[in-house]
Amino acid sequence: MHQNTTADSQATACGAVAIIANRRGELLLHLRDNLPHIAWPDHWSVLGGGCDPGEAPRTTIVRELDEEAGLAVDDLTELFEIRDDHGSGQLITFFAALWDGDETVLPLAEGVKLQFFDPEHLGILTIPAFIRDGIHRYLAGRPA
After folding, report:
1. Which residues pair with 97 in a beta bridge?
2. Region of 29 on the Ramachandran plot (φ > 0 left; ψ -120 to 50 alpha; else beta)
3. Is the pLDDT of residue 122 over 90?
4. Distance between CA atoms of residues 83 and 107, nearest Å
5. Tell me: the pLDDT tens digits for 2-61?
6. In whole angstroms, what is the distance from residue 45 CA to residue 135 CA?
7. Going along 24-66, which residue ranges are E strands?
8. What are 71-80's pLDDT values in tens digits?
9. Which of these, 68, 107, 110, 129, is most buried using a 10 Å CB contact count?
10. CB-based burial of residue 68 (10 Å sphere; 0-12 exposed, 13-18 middle, 19+ buried)?
C-alpha cells in the first residue's frame, strides 16, 4: 500500500479502497501486516492504498488491487469519500465491485490474509473506524 506521509502533502493526501463483494453478499477483507510504520497495523480492511502524485483515485485502486492481490475487477463503481482522521489523514475514495473468485488463490503481496466475510460477522473484527463507516454506507445503499 503506497502512503503519502510528508507533512506538506498531508492536507492533500488521498487514497482509494475497494469494497469487493461476491454474489453471496460477502465482502472481501484484507488482514493488514502488524508493522509499526503502516496505518492500521493488524486490522482487517478493504484493499487499497495511497495515490501516487498526480494519480487519480480510479487509477490508484486498479493499481493497488493488482499490486496487493493480483486482482482485476470489472465495473468499478465510485461511491463516496471519507477522511481517515485517526490514521493516515488521507481523503479516501471508496469504490465497489463484484468478484466471485476464490480469494485463497490470489497472490497476496501485502498483508497476512484475504477472506470473504458475511456482513453480519463484521462486528467481531478489528476494522478501522473509517473503513467500518464506509462499509456501513455501502451496505445501506445496496439493494436488498
Report:
1. 20
2. beta
3. yes
4. 29
5. 444 433 444 468 999 999 999 999 999 999 999 988 888 899 999 999 999 999 999 999
6. 10
7. 27-31, 44-45, 47-50
8. 999 899 999 9
9. 68
10. buried
